[in-house]
């Protein structure tokens, strides 16, 4: 992981479910050059017998079957197991493998960055849509949009504000740029009031957007008729 460097928006930029969001006008659904290149390379590999169409289909089906629950399970484990949390921050790939997640299939390194009262992390892929699909499933349309990919680096606080998240000036915003072989996952801060919840209950609190960094988790409030609660994006 490269060292982060300052941006003009008082943040840092590192190279390397179901929530409403502001409308993004450019979701880049056109057949772009990278997509054309991927199709050409895939067809060439199949033609030469290096891979088969069935192997490609199985990988695609595996990706499409994944949901943010996998990442939520990782986060909840880190909240409840200090040793696992340390291992996760030191080597996200190996820590996730220890939980049974098949990381080798994607041949990428996972780096987990922790939100603290002093630092808020935001994930982006400035070139395309590199994303920790092995843990979060398919990326949302706004993550792939040209507006998000460019503005998240240049004006992260403004982007977060449009998601309804106002980051205090005293908190540093660090932007991490995913690549083809390096993906990032945000370890959000554990919600206040959730100290007595089980790992399973904590898993239900974690949102996709909190693991991307466009949201934080609200304090947990148990209902009178049982320990039920929900987390929402900060508005």
Features:
two-stranded parallel ribbon, 2 domains, Nitrile Hydratase, Chain A, disordered C terminus, disordered N terminus, 235 residues, alpha/beta, 39% helix, four-stranded mixed sheet
Mind explaining what this structure looks like?
This protein is α/β, with parallel strands linked by helices and 235 residues long. The chain has two domains: 31-65, no CATH class; 67-212, Nitrile Hydratase, Chain A (Alpha-Beta Complex), CATH 3.90.330.10. The protein contains eleven helices and six strands. It has helices at residues 33-47, 53-65, 69-80, 82-90, 92-98, 133-136, 141-144, 146-154, 156-162, 199-205, 208-212, and strands at 5-6, 11-14, 109-114, 119-124, 172-177, 182-187. The strands form two sheets. It has a four-stranded mixed β-sheet with strand order 1-2-5-4, with helices on one face. It has a two-stranded parallel ribbon with strand order 3-6. α3 (69-80) packs across α4 (82-90) and α4 (82-90) crosses α5 (92-98). It is globular. Mean pLDDT is 83; it is low at 1-10, 15-25 and 224-235.
């Amino acid at each position: 992981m490269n060292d982060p460097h300052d941006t003009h928006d008082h943040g840092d930029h590192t190279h390397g479910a179901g929530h409403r969001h502001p409308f993004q006008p450019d979701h880049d659904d056109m057949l772009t050059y990278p997509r054309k290149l991927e199709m050409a390379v895939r067809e060439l590999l199949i033609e030469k017998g290096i891979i088969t169409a069935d192997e490609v289909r199985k990988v695609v089906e595996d990706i499409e079957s994944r949901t943010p629950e996998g990442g939520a399970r990782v986060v909840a484990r880190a909240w409840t197991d200090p040793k696992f949390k340390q291992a996760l921050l030191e080597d996200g790939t190996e820590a996730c493998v220890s939980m049974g997640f098949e990381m080798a299939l994607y041949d990428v390194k996972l780096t987990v960055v922790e939100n603290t009262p002093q630092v808020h992390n935001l994930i982006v892929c400035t070139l395309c849509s590199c994303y920790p699909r092995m843990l979060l499933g398919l990326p949302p349309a706004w993550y792939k949009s040209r507006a998000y990919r460019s503005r998240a680096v240049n004006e992260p606080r403004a982007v977060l504000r449009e998601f309804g998240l106002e980051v205090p000036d005293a908190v540093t915003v660090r932007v991490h740029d995913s690549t083809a072989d390096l993906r990032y996952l945000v370890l959000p801060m554990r919600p206040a009031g959730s100290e007595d919840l089980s790992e399973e209950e904590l898993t239900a609190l974690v949102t996709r957007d909190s693991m991307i960094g466009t949201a934080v988790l609200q304090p947990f409030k148990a209902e009178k008729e049982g320990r039920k609660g929900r987390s929402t994006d900060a508005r």
